[in-house]
Design a protein that fits this description.
homodimer, 199 residues, mainly alpha, Tetracycline Repressor, domain 2, DNA-binding
Chain lengths: 199, 199
DNA sequence: GCTTTTACCATGCACTCGCATGAGAAAGGT
DNA sequence: ACCTTTCTCATGCGAGTGCATGGTAAAAGC
């Protein structure tokens, strides 16, 4: 048996190179050559792990999805009240600092790209429900703990929260909102979901 | 004086050709040649009105912004109750039918693109406040008419509504929501803004 | 009818693109 | 030491890219 290489590691390097290029120069400047250079390998090596450009982009999309998923899961593992967990999960989805802006830039690029690419759209349809059901679960937990109004529809509230996060991304990245403003907006919205504020 | 041509008309043709290509094949497949072919003119003619590709994209962005603005303004001119006007304005921003999906596809592409292009970002920062202040104004009118709770912060509610619209676009275009579902989600959210539901 | 301004077109250039190919380096099994 | 499998690389190809150039219709003023 010959030279053995960690394929997952190589794919990760490629995916992360794609991420950096999308972040710095945008999705239209992603090319096999540029990715190879950014990943510090030859173009042939990239082609060995990824046979086509579309496949490479799909790989990058999947990697960022699990990355975001991991960050969100790490929040859920914290020891805190249900409402705080929900708030922190939502803050994880907002471009509040450099790393979360980085992730959101790339995520936004894929949102646009996935509208035109069927495979990417399928990946989106796969990951989205996971995040939504996690949010809904956190809402239900907060309701059970009396921190959120019981009459809220947890699934709909989860959808609205996720939409809020996604919808503020561009405006924030483009400089219309400061991170503080969008964080305050989240708290404003969460405040109205508390019990006792409803008739 | 020589051959006189309606420049705005030509620019409009170019912008609309860009729109169609973005819609059909995505932003990365926009090229001067393709746009010229789609617009039914020669590449040289396109170059006469637009000196660079970035300028062409910016032109297309501005055109779609005024298009959306016009549609929204047309809603505002209708004769209806303030709350219904707000609801209809919001529905105008959602991909509820083919034309609105068309606009949203292109809008989403520019949202991603504007994160990387400074000129496009500037255009975004210019148009966004107009839409937000219109929404806020409609909210205030509905509050004055007793259709929305008086204690709502109109500006923040406008921001949240706009974020909701933008945030549901990708999920809907990708097939996660049906148009009916996202419309129902909007009504669910608007319902909680009504007066008398607050303590 | 000639000029002048405007609008348009065809073509060329240097470059990059995705992808295919074939050769060769690296490394464990025997 | 040699073979075999795994991995990597350099290069070539045809196509497409943004942009520049030089020339050419077209039409209004004189």
């Amino acid at each position: 048996m010959p030279k053995i290489v960690d394929h997952d590691d190589r794919r990760r390097h490629i995916a992360e190179a794609v991420h950096r290029i999308i972040h710095d120069k945008g999705m239209e400047n992603v090319s096999l050559r540029e990715v190879a250079a950014e990943a510090g390998m030859s173009m042939g090596a990239v082609q060995y792990y990824v046979t086509t450009k579309d496949q490479m982009l799909l790989l990058a999309l999947e990697h960022i999805a699990v990355w975001i998923g991991a960050r969100v899961a790490a929040v859920a593992a914290r020891q805190s009240t249900p409402l705080d967990l929900l708030r922190e999960t939502m803050r994880e989805l907002l471009p509040l600092d450099d790393e979360r802006s980085y992730l959101n830039r790339i995520g936004l690029a894929f949102q646009a790209s996935s509208v035109v690419d069927d495979d990417q759209a399928a990946a989106m349809r796969l990951g989205l429900p996971l995040l939504l059901s996690l949010l809904a679960e956190q809402i239900r937990a907060a309701q059970a703990a009396g921190q959120l109004a019981a009459q809220l529809d947890a699934d709909k509230e989860a959808s609205i929260l996720y939409a809020f996060a996604q919808g503020t991304v561009n405006a924030t990245l483009v400089g219309h909102y400061t991170p503080e403003e969008v964080a305050a907006l989240l708290d404003y919205h969460l405040a109205r979901l508390r019990p006792g504020r409803w008739s």
